[in-house]
Design goal:
With about 450 residues, the protein is of the alpha+beta class. Helix content is about 50%, strand content about 15%. The longest helix is centred in the last third of the chain and has 29 residues, at about 400-425. A hairpin with a 2-residue loop joins strand 8 (about 200-205) and strand 9. It has 16 helices and 13 strands. Strands 1, 2, 3, 4, 5, 6, 7, 8, 9, 10, 11, 12 and 13 form a 13-stranded mixed β-sheet that branches. The protein folds into 3 domains: about 1-115 and about 265-295 and about 300-340; about 120-260, Aminopeptidase, CATH 3.40.630; about 340-455.
């Protein structure tokens, strides 16, 4: 089974128009509509009645959910896609598969999280039973937050004031995120295919402070509440008001299925993924996202999987999926994230300062200082600096960042003076020169990061 392969991410609308027609017939996965975003390629089954949307990472074809096909054809289309990938030297995996796929396709799968689902007909009961949710909605109303559904024409017109306001909100929201923007299934294009979607804006005195885009899940007559954006300065309850409006609209239009999408690494995931969740907390608040979705009291939590053919292991499939989200190199994405969030580096420097200070206090390092008094002066200085940095990491204050930036700048200057007058003449090996360089560059780098982090500002309104 060779199938037909769209070799490049399509620039013309023809392949997407064909995919849209298939989605209207077979789009069952919550994420299915997202495959119309730029960057996806499509493998079409020879029969013309099914396709797989994927991204090519260079080593693998990472499919966005299950194949878009009739349920009874899932296994056959999956195998055709795997054979086509193998013919060009690519691995395959399927990201965000739901239980229906696992029941019909014999393929190993790794749980990567859960997604909440509702029957919106019950939404009024949910609100009545949740005092916390009612209070958030009340707070938003008290602050003048109003929510309205936005006609597709407003978002589809680049010159419309609503479209421009949403784009500015998007910029402010992205600037407040900890990680660099990602691709694959989390692209943020709220105006794409506006005529097929629903959208809601939250406003205060006519200014847009929140936005929610809704994608159709055609085969389930449902909605995926996809992009939920809240201005960093929006009143409390803004996000809840948007979800409330969408749920009520879904119920009134006869929808029977609504989801807020994947809560990554939630639920019964494997131990090494739980460890990744804990280690990734500085970059992404996994627990906070699940808690936010849980406050709306879903009818059920559906497990979401990463499926991959044997004999590949789950770790290799996770690597391929991460590359799809990073839009290529994980190293490049990591560097972009660190440059975007220098405060993460401030945290790293605070951690590294602990063993550095301990080394300075050792008797064996006395040769690096003109006297014991100078050695312990540096030790005490670094202890105070460590305490200050960890206090700053715990709760950021621009005033403290300014003080610590000045102290680390002074540290760099004094270290440079000591290095030139005392350490350089005594240096006799490459290791000595490396230690001198680290001693001078580390505080200078920390000072720069502190001042840059202090001066970070969100885009204006």
């Amino acid at each position: 089974m060779e199938g037909r392969l769209q070799e490049q991410a399509p620039a013309d609308p023809a392949p997407r128009a064909q995919v849209l027609e298939l989605l209207r017939r077979y789009g069952w996965n919550a994420t299915s509509f997202q495959v119309l975003q730029p960057g996806f390629r499509y493998w079409f089954d020879p029969a013309g009645d099914a396709c797989v949307a994927y991204v090519d990472t260079g080593g693998a074809w990472v499919a966005a959910g299950a194949p878009i096909s009739a349920p009874e054809r899932l296994a056959q289309v999956t195998e055709g896609f795997r054979v086509a990938a193998r013919a060009v030297g690519r691995r395959v995996c399927f990201f965000a598969t739901e239980p229906r796929f696992l029941e019909r396709v014999p393929m190993p799968s790794l749980s990567i999280g859960e997604q909440p689902v509702w029957d919106p007909v019950r939404w009024s009961d949910v609100v009545r039973s949740s005092r916390g949710l009612r209070e958030q909605l009340r707070r938003a109303r008290a602050r003048g937050v109003t929510v309205r559904e936005v006609p597709g024409a407003e978002l589809g017109d680049p010159r419309h004031p609503t479209r421009r306001a949403v784009e500015l909100l998007k910029a402010r929201w992205l600037a407040s995120r900890r990680m660099a923007p990602m691709g694959f299934l989390v692209q943020l294009r709220p105006h794409a295919f506006a005529s097929e979607r629903h959208a809601f804006v939250a406003e205060v005195d006519g200014a847009v402070v929140g936005f929610l885009s809704v994608s159709p899940v055609y085969a389930r007559e449902g909605w995926f509440l996809q992009d939920l954006l809240r201005d960093p300065e929006a009143p409390n309850g803004t996000a809840e008001s948007l979800v409330d409006a969408a749920m009520r609209a879904a119920a009134s239009s006869g929808r029977r299925y609504v989801t807020l999408g994947l809560a990554p690494l939630a639920g019964p995931v494997r131990p090494w993924l739980r460890l990744a969740r804990a280690c990734g907390r500085p970059l992404f608040d996994f627990e906070g996202l699940r808690t936010f979705k849980a406050k709306f009291r879903p009818d059920a939590w559906v497990p979401i999987h990463l499926s991959h053919p044997s004999p590949r292991g789950g770790l290799a499939a996770v690597y391929d999926a991460l590359r799809a989200f990073a839009q290529g190199s994980l190293l490049r994405f990591g560097v972009a994230t660190l440059l975007r969030r220098p405060r993460l580096l401030v945290h790293a420097l605070a951690v590294l300062l602990v063993p550095w200070t301990a080394l300075l206090a050792l008797p064996s390092t006395a040769r690096w200082f003109p006297s014991v008094q100078v050695q312990w002066a540096w030790v005490l200085f670094d202890v105070g600096l460590t305490v200050g940095l960890f206090s700053l990491v715990r709760r950021w204050r621009d005033s403290l960042a300014t003080v610590l930036g000045g102290l680390t700048a002074a540290d760099a200057c004094l270290t440079f003076v000591q290095a030139v007058t005392y350490n350089v003449p005594l240096a006799s090996s490459a290791l000595d020169w490396a230690i001198i360089a680290v001693a001078v560059l580390a505080p200078a780098t920390a000072s720069g990061l502190l001042f840059v982090s202090r001066d970070l500002r969100l885009p204006g309104r």
